[in-house]
Amino acid sequence: FKGGDTCEYLLSSGRFLGEKVWQPHSCMMHKYKNSEAKNCLIDKHVVFIGDSRIRQLFYSFIKLINPQVKEEGIKHGNIPFEDKSASIKVDFLWYPEVNGSMRQRIKSWTEGPVAKPHIIVVGAATWSIKIHNGSNEALAQYKTNITSIAPLLEKLAISSDVYWVLQDPVYEDILSESRKMITNEKIDAYNDAAVRILNSSSRNSKAKVKVFSVSKLIAQETIMKSADGLHLPESSRDTNAMILMNVYCNKIMKPIDGSCCQPQPPLTLIQKIAFCFFTLSIVGYLIISLIHRNNYRKNKSCTDLESGEEKKPAISTPNVSTLEMLLHCFCKLGLIMTYFYLCDRANLFMKENKFYTHSSFFIPIVYILVLGVFYTENTKETKVLNREQTDEWKGWMQLVILIYHISGASTFLPVYMHIRVLVAAYLFQTGYGHFSYFWIKGDFGVYRVCQVLFRLNFLVVVLCIVMDRPYQFYYFVPLVTVWFMIIYATLAVWPQIVQKKANGNCLWHFGLLLKLICLLTCIYFLSYSQGAFEKIFSFWPLSKCFELNGNVYEWWFRWKLDRYVVFHGMMFAFIYLALQKRQMISEGKGDPLFSNRVSNVLLFISIVSFFTYSIWASSCKNKTECNELHPSVSVVQILAFILIRNIPGYVRSVYSSFFAWFGKISLELFICQYHIWLAADTKGILVLIPGYPMFNVLVSTFIFVCVAHEISQITNDLAQIVVPKDNSTLLKRLLCIAGFFSGLHFFSAMQDQSRH
Fold first, then answer.
1. Are residues 546 and 448 in the same domain?
2. Distances 499 to 386, 443, 448, 568 between C-alpha atoms, Å
3. Which end of the chain is more exposed for a tag (fewer CB within 10 A), N or C?
4. Mind listing the pLDDT tens digit for each residue in 351-367?
């Protein structure tokens, strides 16, 4: 940890990811859109002073505000630009040399009633080298002139952002004869003089001129592509303009994926209360542990001095009390949440942008698939979608999704469409699993509902408090929570139809189908009526849960994207359990699911369907159009996979324990990745060990998986305490939980009021 301001890193260091993506050292750079640039620079005056290289930077900068601008105008003269809609003024002032004229212009802003620009970008040297044929006298005069200008720039830097752009290297081999005297050796001498003189008299950190030296690094990589050996290619100067925009605008706009130049957010009231709670839990657990340790020592075997015989302790080691277990869980959770906060809220660890390459996605996929095959074991039961198989399915899907996120593969549309099927498959399992439980068990009690809701939501609620994020931010958990409640309501509402009742009278099957048809109708109506959907979820308190950035559009989009797949999961469970009850399928060890002929036909159709979907997904050209079709067709590949995995008896009888282990903690892995594996709320990558990307991924992954596993155990332990089986005790716990959320809402309202 070097400390310091990330702005310094942004202005002075970095590297290229690929050919065009610039990665600043230690932080993430946001790619500003035109609307964002206008919002940041509204009512601002920006001035660029210098030569033709600064003019290039000026044009790239104003194109961030208005991409339609053309590079026209007087080459050796001033160029004004104004965006009247946002009251933005950007001027280029032609001063190719650091001389008295430039000094006079800068001095005019420090004296009198003239309004000071908000941003000043200055830089010049190559003209001095060219006009004076690279003489030492010209360098000495440059030093004298910059010495006279430096105090004025430092004075302006108190109230404005002032940047001195160091000179980029040139490509000497293709310079014209009139520019041959501009050598990299001379440029380095001029840059050294500027760096040494600027800020030498300033003791106030606020009055410092920011040295824009990163342009040199960018030019070293790209100047070979220059048309004349002097001016940078367009992509390089666009990168410089984007860096300037990040330096100034990140602290104003606070983009999630722009960690450079952003100060650490202050602790909110709720975060302070959470910190106190976890601290008290840790202290409380330590006190109880010390008391138990002392009691154990007192009761320990000791030798009787008179008889010389060893005495046995009369009291055995006491069982762990509920309070101690509770404090133990919160003690561990507090330490884990501290790590979460340090990783993604404190400016302690570095963060970097993602950069997609095919190898960064497909090589890890092949690696984990090979690992999974090596850990093959026999299943305890050979039913379709048995527990080991569903855990395995969740596990390998979760690992693929994690690799997808860290590699930034969402930019590659075929991969994106296949990952959408994996997310849909999770929801398919939600429909299948919960429908099967309620249909077979007929257990619609409060205990079951509370257990499921607690296990799904505990970690997310804690993260909402500690990381100061809305519930909808962790979109997958709200999605599975709402679908669980929909499944429960569909089956629990009168008349309650379960397998035991339906076995007595076949008409009940039609009653259940009627319920499912009503559910499908409601889903269809809401998916095509955004207004009705938003009205339902805009009512308090639902709005507090499902709003993101002040509206529920994101929630509607996420829900709509996989709207039918849970219904498909319920229908599959209903048909499968009906066939199983009538003994129309064979689930013995090594036996095919159907007769050989039917099994072979279904297997062939499944394989063709599986690859047909993949071909369609790989040929997608437009994400919006493919997303429209996805809800209806994703079930094709899901069902094809289930049949391929279950029709052959020998395939159904084995599973990968490697994938199944990850499947048991898949929910925790999905949520934890937001903050301690990825960074900046999934927009970037956490860097614990800079300079060694592969080693960094190995270390951060090991910690991440251990933390997810530990949180899974904590959740299971707390579920036993918070959600007891006894109804009267459960009612008391529910009242306590209601009080907790009421208090949370009260403090949240206080927090919002103080922010406004």
1. yes
2. 19, 12, 18, 19
3. C
4. 999 999 999 999 999 99
